[in-house]
């Protein structure tokens, strides 16, 4: 009985063993036994997927019997199973989202796909141009170079992405901001690669110089739709060298190119340099000289005035310290009642003009400096607060109109000052005396003498000079605004309406105007925020602020102390009583202090920001 | 007098406020995101309706969608969508496509109560990570495209060019290229015989998003020389408007 059971068990085991062999033999049937085409038989083995085997992709065939009689077909394979990263990127690409392309729509014959051996860029170009075969692509300087074997030149995927082609369909006016940001960044990424550019005989600093222009600065601030980006001048695909007659930047085509944005221009508008190197004396001699002259002007002005200011501060502080140390209070020649008498220094007109000047000046600085220092984080914040570069531009122009208005009023008032009675011959008499007289802001010999005396006083070698109504530094402040207005206003108006300006002068003047406008702005802002602020407010005798420009008057003692000659002249001419006014009201004083302190604070903050950016930015 | 003006102003303000409150924009209420649409299908048995052409719908669609082109909705809905209380979600080929919105309005007039529009159309559905199904996928093929400025030269070079305007009848009537033949996309599958196989065919659509598929379909059906008009009529009009 036991033997029988033993034999039965052995028999069952043998059946199971052979059945297993038969089953495994069935699974091991080779796919190429049926799929005899050359691409499956021989070529597949040598393809990039050759080592995976058929079931690596076609894994869902459960029954070979059913598959052989075509009852079970393999479902679509998932390339993403292995190519996960590509799959993830592809699912956000234009080709998938809008055209529902699948892997095999581009990778036509997956079974014979061979590895690319240094021909990747050419293969991409060939594959993309099967559909995108516009003549533009074929003409493209980049495309032509790729086909010649240049491995640096951009093929389709270098700009548009390979599996992550963006959904920036240029046929519709959508995603303009995203598209411009994306493509500008793409162009810049290669064209700022120094080694690559030198290798290909191109300027390695083109991007850097473009970013120094108005176009580049506004674009960098995050508003690429308002200004010319790379493709606006160089076009998108038909990017050819300047010498090629079909090139968009060929001098023959350039005016037409600029006209796309700047309507109604004179052909000489196109002489504007889109990305010049100001420091290249040979290629851009005029720009070089302009830049250099502005740098020299800035250096000389600040070297002189900052030294002057420093010496002055030392002297005043030292004297104050001595008086405090010895417990001496400055003596006054006036009795208490006379001493508190207010004397008018500025008329209502002067004060209103100065308030407007502050508003317009700060408006210009706040809206203009973020463009100058476009790559600083603070610049982006300020522009964002103002609602974008376009709005900042509007505010800048509004402030400029106020300043130009003030400039014209100042000119008119100067003329009236010289010719108070009229312009007839007999009425003009005495205008030269008035021009160089004590009430005029025109520098004269006395200013030179006072300056020398002041310097002596700085070094403890003389008395504090006696001043009349205007000191030499006040005259400089006034005339500097005049000088600045011609430079900054003239260049500003040119840049405001370059189309109209092109009928007066050629496009390269805009480059010079940009240099003048930018550097003169730096000069003006730093001068006002350091030298003027110190001379007028931060000097220890007036610290923290002298509100006279808002209240309009000061004490008699102050007149006597700071403008001795004027006091003596008014006494001599018996005109002092004309200037005696009441003490300014509380409301005016509060308003003056608030406005003055806020202005001072903004100025000091900006000084800090500018200097920080200049040295560490 | 001043008092009367003040009272009238206050009354007017309240009337305007109430009117504004009573009429919220319809589309905002009807527009739903892909995830909401999936939930609606699960909870209320909502049906997706592909409002594009039959060809496009069969090529790829949201799984289990009904293919009812906007132009055919009135006729087909009577037979397929008898229950006016049925939850229906209309969708289109992109967020630029107006067909889903137009079908929505038509359905509203026909008395359908629970209707919605899939915000962003098929691209939004795909972007949200949901799959699509293909019933009769049109095999993609390389298609040459031309831009508007090349049109004149193409017409001169290819004398027997057949210009196929696949837009709706209304859009065709509002302006088309001289000599273009209008076969709206929704009835293209029934009118293959109207397209000459031995002539070059230039395919024009609304915004360049459909012409590629039409070109592939024509190539698969034996048309040898097929050209696509890049960006459709919208791109051509934009270019012309910019030129001034």
Question: What keywords describe this structure?
Answer:
heterodimer; A: 617 residues; mainly alpha; 31 helices; elongated; B: 244 residues; alpha/beta; Oxidized Rhodanese, domain 1; five-stranded parallel beta sheet; 43% helix
- CATH C-level name of the largest domain in chain B: Alpha Beta
Figure out the total of helices of chain A.
31
What's the oligomerization state?
heterodimer
Q: Let me know the largest β-sheet of chain A.
A: 3 strands, antiparallel
By CATH, the architecture of the largest domain in chain B is named: 3-Layer(aba) Sandwich
Mean pLDDT of chain A: 89
User: What name goes with the CATH superfamily of the largest domain in chain B?
Assistant: Rhodanese-like domain
Give the overall form of chain A. Answer: elongated
Rg of chain B over CA atoms, rounded to whole Å, is 22 Å
Largest interface, C-beta within 8 A: A-B, 24 and 30 residues
Major β-sheet strand ordering of chain B: 1-5-4-2-3
| Estimated share of beta-strand residues of chain B | 5-15%
- Which topology of the largest domain in chain B does CATH recognise? Oxidized Rhodanese, domain 1
Tally of contiguous helical segments of chain B: 11
The N- to C-terminal Cα distance of chain B equals 54 Å
Poorly predicted tracts of residues of chain B: 18-27
DSSP summary, beta strand count of chain A: 3
């Amino acid at each position: 009985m036991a033997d029988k059971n033993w034999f039965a068990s052995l028999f069952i085991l043998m059946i199971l063993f052979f059945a297993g062999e038969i089953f495994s033999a069935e699974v091991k049937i080779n796919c190429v036994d049926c799929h005899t085409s050359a691409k499956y038989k021989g070529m597949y083995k040598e393809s990039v997927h050759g080592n995976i085997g058929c079931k690596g992709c076609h894994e869902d065939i459960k029954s070979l019997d059913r598959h052989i009689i075509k009852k079970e077909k393999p479902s679509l394979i998932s390339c993403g199973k292995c190519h996960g990263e590509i799959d993830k990127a592809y699912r956000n690409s234009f080709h998938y989202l809008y055209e529902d392309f699948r892997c095999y729509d581009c990778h036509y014959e997956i079974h014979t796909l061979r590895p690319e051996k240094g021909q990747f860029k050419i293969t991409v170009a060939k594959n993309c141009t099967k559909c995108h075969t516009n003549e533009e692509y074929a003409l493209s300087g980049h495309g032509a170079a790729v086909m010649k074997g240049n491995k640096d030149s951009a093929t389709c995927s270098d700009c548009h992405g390979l599996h992550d082609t963006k959904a920036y369909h240029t046929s519709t006016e959508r995603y303009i901001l995203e598209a411009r940001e994306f493509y500008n960044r793409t162009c810049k990424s290669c064209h700022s690669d120094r080694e690559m550019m030198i290798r290909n005989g191109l300027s390695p600093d083109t991007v850097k110089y473009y970013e120094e222009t108005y176009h580049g600065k506004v674009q960098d601030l995050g508003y690429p739709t308002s200004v010319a980006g790379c493709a606006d001048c160089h076009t998108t695909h038909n990017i050819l060298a300047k010498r090629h007659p079909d090139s968009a930047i060929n001098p023959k085509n350039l005016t037409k190119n600029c006209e796309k944005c700047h309507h109604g221009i004179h052909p000489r508008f196109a002489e504007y340099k889109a990305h010049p190197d100001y420091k290249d004396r040979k290629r851009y001699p005029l720009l070089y000289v302009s830049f250099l002259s502005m740098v020299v002007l800035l250096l000389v002005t600040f070297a002189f005035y900052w030294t002057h200011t420093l010496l002055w501060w030392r002297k005043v502080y030292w004297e104050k310290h001595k008086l405090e140390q010895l417990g001496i209070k400055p003596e006054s020649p006036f009795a208490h009642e006379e001493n508190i008498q207010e004397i008018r220094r500025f008329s209502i007109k002067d004060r209103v003009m100065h308030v407007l000047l502050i508003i317009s000046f700060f408006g210009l600085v706040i809206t203009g400096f973020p463009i100058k220092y476009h790559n600083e984080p603070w610049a982006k914040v300020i522009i964002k607060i103002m609602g974008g570069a376009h709005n900042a531009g509007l505010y800048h122009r509004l402030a400029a109109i106020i300043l130009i208005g003030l400039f014209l009023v100042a000119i008119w008032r100067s003329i009236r000052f010289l010719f108070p009675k009229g312009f007839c011959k007999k009425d003009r008499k005495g205008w030269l005396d008035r021009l160089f007289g004590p009430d005029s802001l025109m520098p004269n010999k006395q200013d030179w003498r006072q300056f020398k005396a002041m310097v002596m006083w700085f070094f403890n070698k003389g008395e504090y000079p006696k001043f009349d109504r205007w000191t030499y530094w006040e005259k400089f402040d006034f005339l500097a605004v005049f000088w600045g207005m011609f430079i900054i206003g003239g260049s500003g108006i040119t840049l405001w309406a370059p189309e109209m300006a092109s009928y007066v002068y050629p496009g390269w003047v805009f480059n010079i105007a940009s240099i003048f406008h930018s550097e003169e702005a730096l000069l003006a802002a730093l001068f006002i925020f350091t030298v003027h602020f110190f001379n007028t407010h931060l000097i220890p005798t007036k610290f923290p602020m002298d509100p006279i420009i808002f209240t309009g008057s000061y004490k008699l003692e102050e007149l006597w102390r700071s403008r001795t000659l004027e006091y003596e002249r008014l006494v001599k001419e018996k005109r002092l009583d004309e200037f005696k006014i009441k003490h300014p009201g509380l409301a005016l004083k509060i308003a003056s202090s608030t406005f003055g302190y806020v202005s001072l604070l903004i100025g000091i903050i900006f000084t800090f920001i500018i200097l920080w950016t200049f040295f560490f930015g | 007098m001043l008092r009367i003006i003040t009272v009238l102003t206050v009354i007017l303000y309240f009337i305007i406020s109430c009117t504004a409150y009573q009429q919220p924009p319809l589309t905002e209420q009807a527009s739903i995101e892909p995830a909401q649409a999936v939930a609606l299908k699960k909870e209320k048995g909502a049906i997706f309706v592909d409002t594009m052409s039959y060809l496009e719908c069969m090529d790829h669609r949201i799984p289990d969608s009904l293919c009812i082109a906007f132009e055919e909705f009135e006729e087909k809905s009577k037979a397929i969508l008898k229950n006016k209380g049925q939850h229906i979600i209309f969708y289109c080929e992109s967020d630029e496509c107006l067909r889903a919105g137009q079908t929505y309005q038509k359905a509203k007039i026909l008395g359908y109560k629970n209707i919605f529009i899939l915000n962003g159309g098929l691209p939004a559905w795909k972007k949200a990570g949901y799959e699509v199904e293909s019933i009769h996928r049109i095999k993609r093929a390389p298609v040459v495209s031309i831009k508007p400025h090349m049109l004149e030269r193409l017409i001169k070079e290819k004398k027997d060019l057949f210009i196929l305007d696949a837009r709706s009848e209304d859009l065709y009537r509002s302006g088309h290229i001289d000599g273009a033949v209008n076969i709206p996309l929704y009835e293209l599958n029934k009118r293959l015989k109207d397209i000459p196989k031995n002539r070059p065919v230039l395919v024009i659509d609304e915004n360049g998003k459909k012409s590629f598929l039409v070109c592939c379909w024509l190539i698969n059906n034996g048309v040898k020389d097929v050209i696509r008009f890049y960006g459709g009529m919208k791109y051509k009009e934009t270019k012309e408007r910019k030129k001034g």
